[in-house]
Amino acid sequence: MYYKFLLFDLDHTLLDFDSAEDIALTQLLKEEGVVAIRAYKDYYVPMNKTLWKDLEHKKITKQELVNTRFSKLFAHFGIEKDGQYLAERYQLFLSKQGQIFPGVENLLKTLINDGYELYAATNGITFIQTGRIDHSGIAPFFKEIFISEQLHTQKPDREFYEKIGALIPNFDKNYALMIGDSLSADIQGGNNAGIDTVWYNPYHLDNNTQAQPTYEVDSYQALLEILDKL
Fold first, then answer.
1. Is 155 left (phi over 0), alpha (psi -120 to 50) or beta?
2. What's the rounded Cα separation, in Å, for the pair 120 and 146?
3. Alpha-carbon gap, residue 75 to 35, rounded angstroms
4. Is the dihedral of CA 50, 148, 114, 197 positive or negative?
5. Could you say which of 3.40.430.10, 3.40.50.300, 3.40.50.1000, 3.20.20.70 is the CATH number of the domain covering 5-15+100-229?
6. Each residue of 205-225: pLDDT tens digit?
7. Which sequence positions are flagged as catalytic?
8. Where in the chain is the domain with CATH 3.40.50.1000?
9. Residue 118: which residues within 8 A CB-CB, separation 6 or more?
């Protein structure tokens, strides 16, 4: 076993964020009396992704993202709303979602049995991420869950990984592996920190970025096979 410390991204890697988001958005929009729910979702989802990319590139702050995205959503449809209040309601709905992808539990059980130390390394809001991982049932597999809001830095910043390393007993980045779906956050973050990476790419997307994964897999089984060979 070459690697010892496996750092897992959560959303889109282990947790099914799209399903969680869809349910939470439906609950919020229904509560606000929205009839054209599909239209609102079709505008919100790409807008939200753009805001998170802006956060990664430090164009906006986390507070700006959280407190304005829903006011911007409703403003697009000509309605004025309190963005902070809607954010709080959405966070509550989202924090109760714990959907995981098929095969996640088997993957984590296998890795634990093989002697790896598992850690979650996620960008996100503490209240949401802790609630979702508690509802997912996979929390016991991780020795620690690291959330960007708690660390006051986020992927892909090198500091994010340095803080994690300082909190893991006997951590050695040469024996660490970052596993995630995002080239700009997970893979670029690993590159910045000098940590090997696995790009989880189940949809066979092209890499049009400067991020360079050490490995690329399209399934959990493929990940296990790579680790078995080391």
1. beta
2. 6
3. 16
4. positive
5. 3.40.50.1000
6. 999 999 999 999 999 999 999
7. 9, 11
8. 5-15+100-229
9. 6, 8, 108, 111, 112, 141, 142, 143
> Token digits for 122?
């996620």
pTM above 0.85, yes or no: yes
**Distance between CA atoms of residues 83 and 60, nearest Å:** 16
Reported as a single tens digit per residue, the pLDDT across 116-141 is 999 999 998 899 999 999 999 999 99
- Count of CB atoms within 10 A of residue 134's CB? 14
Superfamily for the 17-95 domain? Putative phosphatase; domain 2 (1.10.150.240)
Residue pLDDT, tens place only, 61-107: 988 998 999 999 999 999 999 999 999 999 999 999 999 999 999 99
